[in-house]
Design brief:
Number of strands: 2
Oligomer: single chain
Number of helices: 12
Strand content: 5-15%
Helix content: 55-70%
Radius of gyration: 17 Å
Number of domains: 1
Shape: globular
Strand order of the largest sheet: 1-2
């Protein structure tokens, strides 16, 4: 990922990019991003995700029972669970950000700081809700709702979609979807957990995009994409929520 991003052409406003990617300014940028969660697009994403999670909640137990605990599918999804691990997602964001600063690549530093900022906003939001709800996991553990793996994966997917469009974003979203399914297959989360986790990830990424001026990929800015899992099937909810504000 770092090599691909480093090869991206530089934009002429390198001085401006440096002023918005400095390490010293990171805390204030995160605070600004968090405030943008109340803007229309991020807020609507959270509302739609909450409604979708509530809709699939009655089927949580049925979906959990239908997914095999062992077998080829479960083993194949182990890599998805590892991919969505918070340490993997946060480390990747930090490495991209650091590489951009060290290599003096404004474009890489820009996507890196957006990844870091959105991961912080999404991660803190997820943890606050986890401890407030304290839902028991299917395997008996604590803090099931919402799924942190799913949230972190959809943060990365949506930031990449904003930065580089659907050619890159689609692949990133497919990977995030695999992470979501893996959390169900590993019996770490219920369907409603991953649905709302995805919503938090997308909302955090959109909030960061708005705080940075909303310059990327206007063709996707008016849509939310949330995975929906229900009894007997699964799908993706795509909803137009208007231009970002």
């Amino acid at each position: 990922m770092i090599a691909i991003l480093a090869a991206q052409p530089q934009r002429p406003s390198a001085a401006v990019e440096r002023s918005t990617t400095s390490i010293a300014g990171l805390p204030s940028r995160v605070g600004r991003d968090a405030l943008k969660l109340t803007a229309r697009t991020p807020l609507m994403t959270l509302v739609i995700g909450g409604v979708a999670a509530a809709a699939v909640h009655p089927a949580d137990a049925a979906v959990e029972r239908r997914i095999p605990k062992f077998g080829t599918v479960d083993e194949a999804l182990d890599s998805g669970s590892a991919l969505g691990d918070g340490w993997v997602q946060w480390t990747t964001a930090g490495v991209v950000y650091g590489a951009g600063l060290v290599l003096r690549k404004p474009a890489v530093a820009d996507v890196g700081t957006r990844l870091v900022e959105a991961q912080v906003v999404g991660g803190v939001t997820t943890q606050l809700i986890k401890y407030a709800v304290d839902r028991e996991r299917p395997d008996g553990g604590r803090l099931s709702f919402p799924s942190g793996h799913t949230e972190a994966s959809f943060v990365t997917a949506d930031i990449l979609a904003q930065q580089y469009g659907w050619r890159v974003g689609t692949l990133a979203y497919v990977a995030a979807g695999c992470v979501s399914v893996s959390r169900l297959a590993e019996h770490e989360h219920y369907a409603s957990d991953v649905v709302f986790g995805a919503a938090i990830g997308i909302a955090s990424a959109r909030a960061t995009g708005l705080a940075h001026g909303g310059r990327r990929s206007p063709t996707i800015a008016g849509f939310t994409i949330v995975p929906v899992v229900a009894h007997g099937g699964a799908g993706i909810l795509v909803t137009r929520v208007g231009a970002p504000r």
